[in-house]
Specification:
435 residues; alpha+beta; conserved putative lor/sdh protein from methanococcus maripaludis s2 fold; 4 domains; six-stranded antiparallel beta barrel; 22 strands; 30% strand; elongated
């Protein structure tokens, strides 16, 4: 009995040492990594078999436990089992770093990551190499251009009102700027000694003609009044009433707006002074600014439409004159267009937008995305008679609008060209030395 107790005390340190090694996760199918587990020492000690010894060994071996369940099959009966999840979930368990037991590798095959990647390769390849083509087509189009300018009054519709005689203003009828007047409307009443004397001469000639026929004298006196700017109405009153007025009325020669006034009540006037400036706005000009590179294009335009901000109505304009000079400060030329303004809604100084267009014509076009420029030359990739083969072709293009090019040389109606992935086609053409 004493002998058994002594052996037990000797073996206790070795058993504890084996426990510490297995807790580090280094046990392998009943063996420790360096042969230091307590189970191996028990076997080497050749302890005599008896009931008490067996019970003590079982208690010692049952205390050996591996961390995280990584011990071999030799310990499987002693270590208490953990509850496993359902079989459907256990099939998805994966071993980490190759340390799983042999019993877990033979139940079901775990699907690998590579299988899911392989299944996605085909759609990706189809997307990367999905070349789309478009046909060269004909469209009815016209060239358009937009410019800006200002509304101005026509020079030919602006008239200066002057007195052909000297005198003094007795009464001023149109006394403010920007009044609208009508043709024949009285502007001012003036006294002129020169006109008054001419009226007396005309009346004397009529009286003399009544006594002694002298038609030439009457005509001469009347012509003098006309040359002084006296109206036909006043001359007729002198001949009918045989009475003259010492005042003379100045009338508006045309209808329009008073844009300038250089006369006031009591002013002295003479034949060298402009009294009023009247402008007719029934027709106006649009002076549009053109840059130098736009001058040649405007020769082909024949339809002009003018729009004003805030106005729903669009006005049709007629091209009149391109000024033969360039403004050195703005590097622009001026195009003059005439606009019918019967409603007089357009006023001088308004900012206007000019839309110019040419007659519609048929043109071959391709999308801008179907062409690429290399070394100053435009290229397209033409679809050949063999499916999936394309060859680069040099063409001549001119911009038509924001989305299309006009084909001037190199393609015909119905040709199919690549409309996307041009960089890929270009790379392939360079690799195969097709250019």
């Amino acid at each position: 009995m004493f002998r058994i107790i002594l052996i037990s005390f000797i073996l206790i340190p070795f058993v504890l040492h084996a426990e510490m090694k297995c807790e580090a996760g280094k046990c392998q199918v009943g063996k420790c990594e360096v042969g230091k587990c307590g189970a191996a020492l028990i076997k080497a000690a050749k302890v005599p078999k008896n009931d008490s010894n067996m019970n003590e060994d079982k208690e010692t071996s049952s205390s050996m436990k591996c961390a995280e369940g990584k011990c071999g099959s030799g310990m499987s009966k002693v270590v208490p089992k953990k509850e496993l999840p359902p079989k459907e979930e256990t099939s998805g368990m994966k071993c980490e770093a190759g340390k799983c037991g042999s019993s877990m590798g033979t139940d079901k095959k775990v699907p690998s990551k590579t299988s899911s990647k392989v299944s996605n390769i085909k759609p990706t390849i189809e997307q990367l190499f999905n070349v789309r083509t478009v046909e060269v087509k004909e469209v009815q189009t016209s060239k358009k251009q937009t410019n800006y300018g200002y509304i101005v009054a026509q020079d030919s519709r602006t008239i200066d009102v002057t007195a052909w005689f000297s005198g003094y203003v007795k009464e001023l009828y149109v006394d403010t700027l920007y009044q609208k007047v009508k043709q024949g409307q009285a502007l001012a009443l003036v006294y002129s000694p020169e006109v008054y004397k001419a009226k007396q001469d005309y009346l004397n000639a009529i009286r003399f003609h009544a006594k002694r026929p002298s038609l030439a004298m009457v005509r001469s006196a009347k012509t003098k009044l006309l040359l002084l700017g006296v109206s036909q109405t006043e001359i007729l009153q002198v001949s009918k009433k045989a009475k003259i007025s010492k005042y003379t009325t100045i009338y508006a020669p045309t209808s329009g707006w008073v844009f300038e006034k250089n006369i006031n009540q009591g002013s002295y006037i003479n034949d060298k002074k402009s009294l009023y400036k009247i402008t007719d706005l029934s027709k106006v000009w649009l002076e549009a600014k053109l840059f130098q590179n736009e001058l040649s294009a405007f020769e082909k335009f024949d339809n002009f439409t003018v729009s004003i901000k805030g106005f729903d109505k669009a006005y049709t304009a007629q091209k009149e004159l391109l000024y033969p000079m360039i403004d050195p400060k703005e590097a622009t030329s001026t195009l003059r267009l005439s606009i019918d303004n019967r409603d007089e809604m357009l006023k001088p100084g308004m900012y206007a937008k000019l839309h110019a267009s040419s007659q519609k014509s048929t043109k071959l076009v391709i999308p801008r995305t179907a062409a690429m420029r290399k070394g100053g030359i435009w290229y397209v990739f033409l679809s050949t008679e063999f499916k999936g083969e394309y060859e680069p072709l040099a063409v001549e293009l001119t911009p038509l609008d924001k989305t299309h090019f006009e084909v001037t040389k190199g393609l015909v109606l119905g040709d199919k060209v690549v409309n996307n992935a041009l960089f890929m086609m270009d790379s392939d053409a360079q690799i195969n030395s097709i250019y």
